[in-house]
Write a structure and sequence with these properties.
This protein has about 400 residues and is α/β, with parallel strands linked by helices. The protein is built from 13 helices and 15 strands. It folds into 2 domains: about 5-180 and about 365-400, Rossmann fold; about 185-360, 3-Layer(aba) Sandwich (Rossmann fold), CATH 3.40.50.2000. Helix 1 packs across helix 13, helix 7 crosses helix 11 and helix 10 crosses helix 12. The longest helix has 19 residues, at about 365-385. The protein is globular, with a radius of gyration of 21 Å.
């Protein structure tokens, strides 16, 4: 019997972010397995896309520091009746704020097991709050800790995130289940699309960054490295794929450094176009130090790209240093040296790319979703015994409490 899962998230399509991709990927995999997934998310006004089934939208307002991001007003006259009508088995929240708190409220009201995925080191994003950064950091830590301890289980996408949660006082069970990669989407693609689309010569080495252009992604660091150490030594092009609040500022930096002719800002792209970017590039570069996982690193590896990234937090767990990429200090010269190692050595670049593609299969979206299902079922047994509808065969499978990021093989 399929589960009915209510997902409460403060961001969803058409907004683009790692959280949105995570929620969407999980929904697709759960649906393929025969489960029903219902999304409760903000409304994005001016969006002309046809609404998918099973999505419930809340009235929202633009965020003051990021107008592309909508802040939901967590109130609805009909939501209580909707939840009762849906007869949800699990409520899974993807934020400790706004709609996450609303989901937690209704989970408690209706005695529904509550799961919280900790996607973000929120204290690293306080630059979006226009006052008291230090005070805000402390408030956010306490807020996340208290919220987590009111859930039945917290999901961490990496061991680094798990340790962080334990460090700020989360005492409920914390399971490490990364956001999986739909590896079937990366089986084949047009390797020439990127060069044709942006008129990049065949001789130029393409360095690729993919992500939302916010301060926390540290794209300015990549531009600095590219300017000082890369573009002066070799024929290279830097492609920055994605949009966000820092896009205009980063374009100005590229112009000021006189490298605008070698840097391509694509703006927001479709999912298929992003995959084409991965396939058309030579090296993936990533300088964020705030990632709980670094989903784009997994995507780049799935397309066979070697990665150069900063050895910090979740990103450090996505790369085996010297095998499928390089991990470096947050030092421009060190970061640049590893990029040049790959540029100058085609054999090394090709070998690391092949290793990257192989290791990416260890976290297929199917396997990660399967682990999430076992997590849901174990909670239903504990909180509402006898109601999960499982037979003896369904009960068989890995214990999600024991899983680590690399423990599930692709099926």
């Amino acid at each position: 019997m399929g589960l009915k899962v209510g997902v409460f998230t403060d961001s969803y399509k058409p907004y683009t972010s790692g959280v949105v991709r995570s929620v969407d990927t999980l929904k697709q995999e759960l649906t393929k397995m025969g489960h029903e997934v219902y999304i409760f998310a903000p409304c994005y006004y001016g969006n002309s896309q046809k609404e998918e089934s099973g999505v419930f939208r809340f009235i929202s307002i633009p965020a003051p520091t990021n107008p592309e991001f909508s802040l939901a007003i967590p109130y609805s006259l009909t939501i209580n009746d909707t939840i009762k009508k849906l007869q949800l088995d699990i409520i899974h929240v993807h934020s400790p704020f706004l709609l996450g708190r609303l989901g937690a409220y209704y989970a408690k009201m209706h005695n529904i097991p509550l799961v919280f995925t900790f996607h973000t080191f929120y204290e690293q994003y306080v630059h979006y709050v226009p006052f008291g950064e230090k005070m805000t950091r402390n408030i956010v830590k306490k807020f996340c800790s208290e919220f987590g301890n009111n859930c039945n289980t917290v999901i961490a996408p990496s061991i680094a995130a798990q340790k962080y949660l334990q460090g700020i006082g989360v005492r409920v069970p914390i399971k490490v289940i990364p956001t999986g990669i739909p590896v079937e989407n990366f089986e084949q693609n047009d390797q020439l699309w990127l060069r044709k689309k942006y008129n990049i010569s065949q001789e130029s080495i393409i360095l690729l960054f993919v992500g939302r252009l916010g301060k926390e992604k540290n794209v300015g660091f990549i531009l600095d490295v590219f300017n000082k150490y890369i573009v002066k030594k070799t024929d290279a092009t830097l492609v920055v794929a994605g949009g966000g609040p820092e896009e205009s500022a980063l374009k100005r930096v590229a112009e000021q450094l006189n490298i605008a002719h070698k840097v391509i800002f694509t703006g927001n792209l479709s999912k298929h176009e992003i995959i084409s970017c991965y396939y058309g590039a030579d090296i993936f570069v990533f300088a964020s130090v705030t990632e709980t996982q670094g989903l784009v690193i997994s995507e780049a590896k799935a397309a066979g790209l070697p990665v150069v990234a900063i050895n910090k937090n979740g990103a450090s767990e996505m790369i085996e240093n010297g095998h499928d990429g390089f991990l470096t200090d947050l030092t421009p010269q060190c970061f640049a040296n590893r990029i040049m190692d790959l540029i100058d050595n085609y054999t090394l670049r090709h070998k690391m790319g092949a290793n990257a593609k192989e290791s990416a299969e260890l976290i297929s979206s199917y396997n990660c979703a399967l682990r999430m299902v076992y997590c849901y079922l174990s909670l239903m047994d504990r909180t509402r015994p006898g109601e999960c509808g499982r037979d003896n065969k369904t009960k068989q499978g890995p214990d999600c409490c024991k899983g680590t990021m690399w423990s599930v093989k692709s099926q």
